[in-house]
Amino acid sequence: MDEPRRRLDPLALAVLGGAAVIAVGAAVWLLLSVRSAPESTPTKAGPLQTLHATAPRRTRRCFASSPTWWNCARLPAGDDMRATILGGILSAALLLGWQVPCASQTEAPVARPAVKPGDRWVYNRMDYWANRVVTVRTIEITMANDKVIQLVATEPGKPEMDETFSADWNSIATTVNNSVPDSGHLKFPLRVGATYPVEYESVFGPQRNWRSKHERKARVVGWEEITVPAGKFRALKVEVEGSFQRLDTSLAGTAKTTIWYVPEVKRWAKLIFEDNILMGPQRGPFNKFGEELVQFKLQ
User: Fold this and answer.
1) Could you give the domains of the chain?
2) 3 state DSSP class of 102
3) Which helix (H) or strand (E) covers residue 80, if one does?
4) How far apart are CA 225 and CA 256, in angstroms?
5) What is the mean pLDDT of the chain?
């Protein structure tokens, strides 16, 4: 999937059109109403320079010292005042015309990835406390539809494991835990600035007999350039932050997952999970692990 393109929304186009009409109308009115305008050789000067060249002497002196309309607001009535008012109109129109495109060039939302059987990703599993690679994890899709993604996960020295994710790449059943209904970290289409609640329960542990409840809030932060072993990517950063409560013990705390999702990869290039124990025998920062993309192959 191609990287989202910038676009101008209809409101921005309407405002730009209005700004252009204001600027042109003000310039025509100025040429028809201001007297004693000296002749000048046509140049490629912009609207503010044109105003300076055609305005009466006192207005030109004001613009020479400070070419902004608000510093010329105390000129006498008449031609000078008309020129001053027009300077304000032109300045406002030009400022609007310049700023609206910047403000309205929003990123198109990122659609859910269309993955296929045979798509493959290789990640370094990281321990960020020690800043080292723990293992190398390879996943390959065996089945995918608009509801679920089935894949096979392999790590050196371990048997293959079947895993299940939602179509939005939220974990349902993995080698680490089971999430009910799913982990909910990603909610496509992803829009910069969007927020959404994340609530789920997880079952984990050596015997899958530990249970915890998670209540978090996800925020689509924005685009960042990141570098991982697979290379440099422009990624959409998503932060999922909130609390967890163990249901089988009194252990509780806060947790944060940060995801750097890359549309062209159809998955994340980097993920970090960290938690902080607030209630329990061992309090303070605890886990800080994640994964970084090493290579990928799409069908």
Assistant:
1) 6-107 (no CATH), 120-297 (2.40.360)
2) helix
3) helix 79-104
4) 20
5) 79
